[in-house]
Amino acid sequence: MDQAALTPHIPRLRRYARALVGDRYAADDLVQDTLERAINKYHLWRPGSDLRAWLFAIMHNVYVNQLRSRAARPEAALDDEDALPQAPSDVDRLEIRDIQVALAALPAEQREVVLLVALEQMSYAEASTTLGIPIGTVMSRLFRARERLRAHLDGTPQQSNLKLVK
To answer: Of 97, 102, 94, which is closest to residue 152 (Cα–Cα)?
Structure first.
């Protein structure tokens, strides 16, 4: 088989594989399995037909076969020792710390709204009921909190649009 004929199709195969499996490494494995099968079964390809469509059909079939084989042999549960979470990287730790500091700097009423809406994924109405405040107040507190968080995380000084009245 002329492997050079396959090369231009690899980026599209990778994009499709990534959409199917959602993981870059699993997608690369799927592309590799697809190309291996295409090379081994090249004699079945009809010259003059669309090679790209043939490769995508092979990828789809390989993917379905992988799903079936996984369903047929469920993976053994991990021991508690094996299920240790992956340690966050230094960059992740710094970002988490920055977010914690920024949240701690918010006034309590703004922090409550941010945590209910963003972390607990409550709707504005649910947050309103939980805090016993009108929905409009939830929305304005959330807006102000997001602005403060953005300014804090970007390192820009907090500016107020309020005018001093004498």
So the answer is: 102
pLDDT tens per residue, range 7-34: 888 988 888 788 767 788 998 999 999 9
Q: How many whole angstroms separate alpha carbon 88 and alpha carbon 86? A: 6
Nearest to 102 by CA among 37, 44, 166, 158: 158
Average predicted confidence (pLDDT) for the chain:
80
Question: H/E/C letters for each residue in the chain?
Answer: CCHHHCHHHHHHHHHHHHHHHCCHHHHHHHHHHHHHHHHHCHHHCCCCCCHHHHHHHHHHHHHHHHHHHHHHCCCCCCCCCCCCCCCCCHHHHHHHHHHHHHHHHCCHHHHHHHHHHHHCCCCHHHHHHHHCCCHHHHHHHHHHHHHHHHHHHHCCCCCCCCCCCC
Non-local CB neighbours of 60 within 8 Å, separated by 6+ positions: none
Cβ neighbours of residue 149 under 8 Å, at least 6 residues apart? 99, 102, 103, 106, 114
